[in-house]
Amino acid sequence: MASSTMLSTGRYSPAAFMGNPKKLGPSAGRRGRDFFLKGKNFGRVRMTVAVNVSRFEGVSMAPPDPILGVSEAFRADTSDVKLNLGVGAYRTEELQPYVLNVVKKAENLMLERGENKEYLPIEGLAAFNKVTAELLFGADSPVIQQGRVATVQSLSGTGSLRLAAAFIQRYFPDAKVLISSPSWGNHKNIFNDARVPWAEYRYYDPRTVGLDFEGMLEDIEAAQDGSFILLHGCAHNPTGIDPTPEQWAKIADLIEEKNHIPFFDVAYQGFASGSLDADASSVRTFASRGLELFVAQSYSKNLGLYSERIGAINVVCSSPDAAARVKSQLKRIARPMYSNPPVHGARIVANVVGDPNLFNEWKQEMELMAGRIKNVRKRLFDNLSEKDNNEKDWSFILRQIGMFSYTGLNKAQSDNMTDKWHVYMTKDGRISLAGLSLAKCEYLAQAIIDSFYKVS
């Protein structure tokens, strides 16, 4: 703690300073008496030692983010064999970041047009909002044709979820959000920060490394009527386990029966299977039933726009009038929160999705990215099966989808992956296959088998 020394005469005694703390300058205040720890008299001059006590003494150190902290630890590791399988960001076969060719073309168009950097409206870029809703629901969907979707551009998926959470807190103060167990780690943080109560519903079955479908239905059934049910539209994070189309239909039946409100988080449309339509089928199943619902979107993964923070919150309403009112209140919440969203990523999306040639090129690039991850997934399964002398069934890896795989490793086993094998991953056993190359699959398989069998 820094200390400072000051000289005081009789008329500037500590008591006098206490009576008028301004004489100490801006560092003084109601805690002024804490500054005077001890003093010595030297004739008419009194020497006073003061200690500058921070007003932030009560602020504790926050724990590192469980996902982003993995990358920090990875960067500090000097091993030549290290692997970063923590953060969900696409990498090439050479494990380098990838900027889509179609994104570069869209940015060149922006330069050619000389587009400015003026503020967007609170709801975002109109062209972006139009194409993003159509991409999600289908341009010919009744919810689009009838004007029943309120779409507001927001700060990627996280910002879209946070905006919706603030809306729920304001207009559904007695409602609770049900989140899958497990789920993306930031989901709980978002609803906590918005002061929206939440509970969990069963999702993952460790015995089968698959979906606990019956447990999921039982928990949704037991929830208070009118609850919000947070669902992953595709490529569930962290498990990579999705319901089948038949299971989605049963989930929709139950949610409709219980008058719940579905709330989809769609972060991987087109990136999971390689098909935009297939990855949006769960959302479209619910929308086709006339249900009111929320959908948070992100373009971080499928267009590689991680740092652009580009996404949207969509609210499907029962009428155009309701959609207009909901949109007005979402804008009202956004205004003091961040005022208006960024334009660069929104223009990229509008240019790509709105241009038939660029749109087709984008779909081809997504198929390549999704295909690379599928190939890595298959190679990892093959290597695990070949190296496992105990003949464990690793086929659950093939049944998972998207960039993540839930390995079934516990915290101690995940620690062994890092400490011994220099494989960085989240402590729940999730690995990002997007950060894995075909050449590294054999090494990863060895690490998994060693950790699974030698660490309890």
Sheet with the most strands, sense and barrel status:
7 strands, mixed
Helix count equals 17
The N- to C-terminal Cα distance equals 45 Å
What best-fitting shape do the alpha-carbon axes yield?
Answer: globular
Number of strands: 16
Stretches where pLDDT is under 50 for at least 5 consecutive residues are: 1-19, 21-39
**Strand neighbour order, sheet with most strands:** 5-13-12-11-10-6-7
**CATH architecture group name of the largest domain:** 3-Layer(aba) Sandwich
Please, what is the average pLDDT? 90
GO biological process, one term: amino acid metabolic process
Organism: Dendrobium catenatum
EC number: 2.6.1.1
InterPro entries: Aminotransferase_I/II_large, Asp_trans, PyrdxlP-dep_Trfase, PyrdxlP-dep_Trfase_major, PyrdxlP-dep_Trfase_small
How are the SSEs placed, and which strands pair?
Elements lengths: L2 E7 L4 H6 L16 E7 L2 E7 L16 H9 L6 E2 L16 H13 L12 H12 L4 H4 L3 E7 H16 L5 E5 L3 H9 L4 E5 L1 E2 L4 E2 L1 H10 L5 E5 L12 H13 L3 E6 L9 H4 L1 H7 L5 E6 L11 E7 L3 H19 L5 H11 L1 H32 L8 H4 L4 E3 L4 H11 L1 E2 L5 E3 L8 H14 L2
Parallel strand pairs: 4-15, 6-7, 6-10, 10-11, 11-12
Antiparallel strand pairs: 1-3, 2-3, 5-13, 8-9, 12-13, 14-16
Helix pairs in contact: 3-13, 3-14, 4-13, 6-7, 6-12, 8-9, 9-11, 13-14, 14-17, 16-17
